[in-house]
Amino acid sequence: MTEDAPLSPELLPAGPDGIELRFARRPEPAAMAAVQVLAAEIAAAPPEGLRELVPGLVSVLLRLDPGTVAAVGPGLLARARAIAATRPALPAPTRRWTIPAAFGGAEGPDLAAVAARLGQSEAAAAAEICAAELRVLTIGFAPGQPYIGLLPEAWNLPRLPELTPSVPAGALVVAVRQLVLFGAASATGWRQVAQVAFRPFRPDRAEPMPLRAGDAIRFAAAPADQIATLAGDPQGLGGARLEVLA
Amino acid sequence: MSTLTLHRVDGIVTVQDMGRPGHLAQGLSRGGAADRLALIEAAALLGARAPLAALEMAGAGGVFSVDAPMRVALTGAPMAATLDGVPLRWNATHRIEPGARLRIAGAEAGVYGYLVPAGGLVTPDWLGSRAAHLAIGIGAPLTAGAVLAVTPDPAPETEARVIAVANRFQGGTARLMDGPQTGLFDAGTLDAFCATAFRRGARGNRQGVQLSAEARFVAAEAAGLASDLIGPGDVQSTGDGVPYVLLAECQTVGGYPRLGTVVAEDLPLIAQAAPGTVLRFRRVGAEDAARACRDETVLLREAAARCSSLIRDPATIPDLLSYQLIGGVTRGDDLEQDDAR
């Protein structure tokens, strides 16, 4: 996983009413950036017949009126190739979330081990997460649940060899330069470094799944007792703040 | 408002409609009826302009009554049904009087039967759909004593009708088109997949079903693969090479490589395969797959053309003693596999 691995965009079938533009087979950082650029371009100028636009980790899925599939593909492949060739910077985010998080201790039981691997103090490791320019890369596995990245190269930590049987809802876990924010208690092979009071999925909330791929994310360190208090928010927003930037 | 009361529940009974499309980017799959064609056929029988919210009965039904005269359509997996002890024809509409007991037993073939009131259920909706989405805790299997709101039948005097239905309840061959990851499998593996007579495995629910065979189907280039966007119809090959076909409630992102995608019109055949049923797959090109991707309004028109007046013929009444309960339907989340685990 290097920044300059060559990208080879492919136009692929995804059911009779869909196409997928894939920048790489493996989770290359450059492919993740290219996905964000292509998805933003398509959202700004949607092709005829577009029903759904879904940014994935290394691919963009389009659901289309079945009659338009054949016509739309070649143009999008050309755009994907242009993006792959020029390696543009990430598009400027249009929204930014600031999410309070309690790092370490009972709220982040693996932070000490993560910091040791990085050769840093726990405080420095937490500060690096809070300083990182992070984006929601994709949402999946559970409604609203974000894959967030990318952390600096040193954070390319492997998954744990054994599953942790359960981390709580709101667990912030890390591996392979990414962060996942669990909406519900879950088993995981990633390392829990913090706990947040924000819940990415609340069916009874006005916006049940408020995060979108491409959103900028900042974590703000907060004491554990404050996170515990914020967890009482009936909306499940847990002190998260949304700024509209564009 | 009329009501439908559940006096006894024998299968996994949930409210389903055509689901909630449009939220893939937020990680929510469409969900809705496991056998969408069954709701289309019910709408055709009842003269409805669009599919109605209904009871989906996995494995078996229960005992039901209504508080106002109304027609109901019985579609999907054929189940032995009686009204106050009198056998009812499946794939037909029937008028139910208040106080009469509608009994729906186990599926004689297939998995998912549908009880569709002519006015449609009007249970609470979420994101524009009343469908239970069990995997994420939206709605829940119904239990005895439930009383559900129903829009009054707009035309309760309409004569009973029957629909001719192709048998999609005892397995068969499903068409498979290439998907984004078909190229990860070598030609021999893909040929072997289409030459294999699978049995629907023991594991299965609204998220997907296991395909059981001795052979394994492993992608040649699966190591380190990035998770990809997935959907109903996709055939995933899990870590040990056992394939699963994803259904309505599948996740939206998956880490396992996919052999291809079952075309939407053949998905009811997969969903309705009870454990042990033989399933085969045939690869088709994009053009054939596109032809098998017809709009629901087209399918509804076709279904309407298959409807006719119900002529009661004792020879067509199912033998009430021949049914058996269909096992292997679970409500669990045993298909969940998570890249973050």
TrEMBL record, chain B:
<dbReference type="InterPro" id="IPR029000">
    <property type="entry name" value="Cyclophilin-like_dom_sf"/>
</dbReference>
<keyword id="KW-0378">Hydrolase</keyword>
<feature type="domain" description="Carboxyltransferase">
    <location>
        <begin position="25"/>
        <end position="297"/>
    </location>
</feature>
<keyword id="KW-0456">Lyase</keyword>
<keyword id="KW-0067">ATP-binding</keyword>
<keyword id="KW-0547">Nucleotide-binding</keyword>
<dbReference type="Pfam" id="PF02626">
    <property type="entry name" value="CT_A_B"/>
</dbReference>
<dbReference type="GO" id="GO:0016829">
    <property type="term" value="F:lyase activity"/>
</dbReference>
<dbReference type="InterPro" id="IPR003778">
    <property type="entry name" value="CT_A_B"/>
</dbReference>
<dbReference type="InterPro" id="IPR052708">
    <property type="entry name" value="PxpC"/>
</dbReference>
<protein>
    <submittedName>
        <fullName>Urea amidolyase</fullName>
    </submittedName>
</protein>
<dbReference type="GO" id="GO:0005524">
    <property type="term" value="F:ATP binding"/>
</dbReference>
<dbReference type="GO" id="GO:0016787">
    <property type="term" value="F:hydrolase activity"/>
</dbReference>
